[in-house]
Amino acid sequence: MNCAEKREMVRRALLLYAVTDRSWVGEKTIYEQVKASLDGGITLLQLREKEMPYEDFLREAKDIKALAASYRVPMMINDNVDLALAVDADGVHVGQSDMEAGSVREKLGQDKIIGVSARTVLEALRAEKAGADYLGVGAVFSTSTKEDADVIAWNTLKEVCQAVSIPVVAIGGIKKNNVMQLAGSGAAGISVISGIFGQPDIRTACEELLALAKEMIKK
């Protein structure tokens, strides 16, 4: 796969990007929640575990990687490059305070997907130069998942999208009632946590969000 083909593959994958959060598990397991989201049409999955012991996370990640692969949906790991290597994840998403994208690329190789969180044009350009394949930009709306995340303006999202040649996914507080507010920004898709995993019917929530995301990127 050449660079142009990889970029287009990543762009398509960002359309509906589901990020797990154990606080929304309830009576279901993460595995069951992920399966429901895959049935609902998510296009990319990020396994995000901040507190789980390494060995437990490793076992869970291997099971979910196999599940996602059966749907031909790439699975990313949040922050943990070593675990991503251990389970042969499709990539890693890192924040500004985590390992720099260039260092991640050295460990993962050229074929894996690297995503980087960014809030400004400067951060976005720096991440692109370091080898990021996509940017997660936000928070575009207020979010309970990261209460310390300041909301960025729609214009900032658009400026970042225009400043870089790699695709951008909008992150933070996105739900079905605000997706269309992102229309015209240039974002390639939406990254959703509670709007998926906090819903009583995950599959239906994903089907609705996918339809909205497709409409949003056409505007």
TrEMBL record:
Thiamine phosphate synthase/TenI domain residues: 16-196
Ranges in coiled-coil conformation: none
EC number per UniProt: 2.5.1.3
Positions with a binding annotation for 4-amino-2-methyl-5-(diphosphooxymethyl)pyrimidine: Q46, L47, R48, E49, K50, N78, S117, K146
Entries under NCBIfam families matching the protein: thiE (TIGR00693)
HAMAP family, A to Z: TMP_synthase (MF_00097)
Record protein name field: Thiamine-phosphate synthase
Protein source organism: Blautia pseudococcoides
